[in-house]
Amino acid sequence: EPEVTQTPSHQVTQMGQEVILRCVPISNHLYFYWYRQILGQKVEFLVSFYNNEISEKSEIFDDQFSVERPDGSNFTLKIRSTKLEDSAMYFCASSDPAANTGELFFGEGSRLTVL
Amino acid sequence: GDSVTQMEGPVTLSEEAFLTINCTYTATGYPSLFWYVQYPGEGLQLLLKATKADDKGSNKGFEATYRKETTSFHLEKGSVQVSDSAVYFCALSERTGSARQLTFGSGTQLTVLP
Predict the structure, then answer these.
(1) pLDDT truncated to tens, each residue of chain A (115 aa)?
(2) Which residues in chain A touch residue B49, judged by CB atoms under 8 angstroms apart?
(3) Distance between CA atoms of residues A5 and A29, nearest Å
(4) CB A105 to CB B46 under 8 A?
(5) Euclidean distance between CA atoms A52 and A76, whole angstroms
(6) Which residue has the higher pLDDT, B29 or B53?
(7) Which residues of A touch B44 (CB under 8 A)?
(8) Which of A42, A45, A105 to mutate to test the interface with B (most CBs of B within 10 A)?
(9) pLDDT of B2-23, one tens digit each?
(10) Predicted pLDDT at A70
(11) Which of A42, A48, A91 is opposite residue B44, by nearest beta carbon?
């Protein structure tokens, strides 16, 4: 069964460092998303991406964040200068517009720890 | 804006007990509704879904019915198992621009004791 894969599963970084989280969405999906979950809190929407551009973003997704689809398979989230409060689980997701059910398929997440 | 309100946790049950986790929503249109489950150390997995009023989603013995009149999507299971211990998230999806964006509830931690 096709799945969304994410790397790394866990990354530890120092405050102020740049981090890139990588995702390989399901191959025939056209919409891609990043969500985050701070420990013990709600899963929050960060950004959606379609046709090589951001289609929607939340207030959380400020200038420190960027997304990119550098090739035909990867979808990345970059945090330019990490802060302690960026520590969270980051989930990538993708969806198939033809399905029209609104279902998103999630990866297993990348845990980011900022020290 | 859209929002999802879930029953506060944590919930602790004995094996074979009946489970209900309440979920209500606020939305401007006609959303699709979902329950996602997060097992310890794992990512989010879709448990079940319903795309229109009166639809019943079901999977692995879990059920939820899309009630438009009460704006609810309560999760139920007749007999829980230890392996059902996880965090359960209610979510809704409405089309925003070109993509669908999920709005999650706060999650309900379920622990099932043998």
Answers:
(1) 778 999 999 999 999 999 999 999 998 898 999 999 998 888 999 999 998 999 889 999 999 999 999 887 899 999 999 999 999 999 999 988 777 666 888 999 999 999 9
(2) 101-103
(3) 13
(4) yes
(5) 12
(6) B53
(7) 43, 91, 106, 109
(8) A42
(9) 899 998 889 999 999 999 999 9
(10) 86
(11) A91
Mutate to test the interface with A, among B44, B52, B59, B109 (most CBs of A within 10 A): B44
Sign of the C-alpha dihedral, residues B23, B96, A104, A21?
Answer: negative
CA A96 to CA B106: how far, in whole Å? Answer: 26
* CB-closest option in A51, A103, A108 to B43: A108
Contact A104 B95 (CB under 8 A): no
Mutant choice from A43, A57, A95 vs B, greatest count of B C-beta within 10 A = A43
pLDDT of B32 > 60? The answer is yes
Tens of pLDDT, residues B48-101: 999 889 999 999 999 999 999 999 999 999 999 999 999 999 999 876 555 678
Q: CA–CA separation, A92 vs A5, rounded Å? A: 8
Contact of A9 with A108, CB cutoff 8 Å? yes
Give the whole-angstrom CA distance, residue A12 versus residue A95. Answer: 29
Rounded Cα gap, residues A62 and A83, in angstroms: 13
Query: Around A67, how many Cα atoms within 13 Å sit in the side-chain half-sphere?
Result: 24
Calculate how close chain B gets to A82, using CA atoms only, in Å. 23
| C-beta separation of B112 from B81 below 8 A | yes
